[in-house]
Amino acid sequence: MKWPHIPTALLALLLAVLLLLAPALEQSF
What we know:
Layout (H helix, E strand, L loop, with lengths): L6 H22 L1
């Protein structure tokens, strides 16, 4: 399945990663 060039998908993935890392970062600092 080939995806067209969608910056939105990349932004959504980045946002998901940030949401997953946020609690871990809060515990670290």
